[in-house]
Amino acid sequence: xxxxxxxxxxxxxxxxxxxxxxxxxxxxxxxxxxxxxxxxxxxxxxxxxxxxxxxxxxxxxxxxxxxxxxxxxxxxxxxxxxxxxxxxxxxxxxxxxxxxxxxxxxxxxxxxxxxxxxxxxxxxxxxxxxxxxxxxxxxxxxxxxxxxxxxxxxxxxxxxxxxxxxxxxxxxxxxxxxxxxxxxxxxxxxxxxxxxxxxxxxxxxxxxxxxxxxxxxxxxxxxxxxxxxxxxxxxxxxxxxxxxxxxxxxxxxxxxxxxxxxxxxxxxxxxxxxxxxxxxxxxxxxxxxxxxxxxxxxxxxxxxxxxxxxxxxxxxxxxxxxxxxxxxxxxxxxxxxxxxxxxxxxxxxxxxxxxxxxxxxxxxxxxxxxxxxxxxxxxxxxxxxxxxxxxxxxxxxxxxxxxxxxxxxxxxxxxxxxxxxxxxxxxxxxxxxxxxxxxxxxxxxxxxxxxxxxxxxxxxxxxxx
Length: 465
Known about the structure:
Layout lengths: L11 H12 L3 H9 L5 E5 L2 E12 L10 E5 L12 E2 L5 E9 L3 E8 L18 E2 L1 H15 L3 E2 L7 E5 L8 E9 L12 H13 L3 E7 L15 E7 L12 E4 L4 H5 L2 H10 L7 E5 L6 H4 L4 H18 L11 E6 L1 H12 L6 E5 L8 H11 L7 E7 L6 E4 L5 E4 L1 H14 L3 E7 L5 H4 L3 H13 L1
Parallel strand pairs: 13-14, 13-15, 15-16, 16-17, 17-20
Antiparallel strand pairs: 1-2, 2-5, 3-6, 4-5, 6-8, 6-10, 7-18, 9-10, 11-12, 12-14, 18-19
């Protein structure tokens, strides 16, 4: 369902809550009613299980003496739009937003509190290589970053389902983000997803068995040593080994770009442990190469030097420095990325199909490339003799156009979903082995984390049969 199909409607649960809330004679009684609810309200519509009515509620704190400006921040509504603005219940300090959403939806959300927010105009200089945001889209994202900086982005206090983002699970008291989860009744089951407690226990076991190790790569020892952006720079990476690892055998390799995201936000080591133990996939080596916080967009923007580094430096480091028994069979070697790193993973496999025979991308940033250039790029490098297996996925709610201006001052206004569909169609035109799936959700980890297991099973089933 696209954003244009969303509509406001009336909620019986909201009416019941407001009735009880309005009957409360004192602030203490109102507090009691407020603390007794579980949100958001989720209701069946006309005995139809295709859609659900979801009502988000927010209480102004302290009781508002002036208008409060609250927006829902979620993939299901456009950012800072009339569709995302919460409405005030008359004569109360309660704000609400009701939406009709598909019953199979899983996504995240927060509340944006714009009350007393003074928008600062930030001048973001044009980048000589990558496109930059422009127009109202740019202004909205500047405002969003300011709200984060001022702690004006809030989770739903009455929703126990949350996803917490950690830099490191061992620093549990220092998360760098948290979002509330909306999971409707028909949302696809997500297999092999452990709890945080299970992740920590398994991580400790893997470390004690030396099957999950952290390493530091110094670029002075690589072909990038002469590049100023890499001078005296280090980069973390992690190696996961299966329980039955034997150096006398060769194993499939799965390389994850944006490595720390695939460790802390999507617990891949735990997922792989479960899948391998249940014989869902063969024993495999997984490597997680971290991104650069300063150069992420550049490295992942189909950068030829970084791509060459992966092939001529990083893979040999794994084979030689760590003596990993990695297969030389490209059909059993996979590269995975999400968002910007999805574009990078796609480019690496496209350029080096003799190394990476499979690529999995989630919500890849194909919209960051001019579509005419993207089509030429695919046409120039697709190799019909070496069949890469492309698995591409994007969300049905990643439909908001992203306004970009390129270094040559040309502009493009394209959504993630549409750009992914374009890339898929270009691949098919050139005879590639590609699949595209649109999951019901948005640009977030709570969707992506449930997809990797089915995609790895798909690849191995094709390659090993």
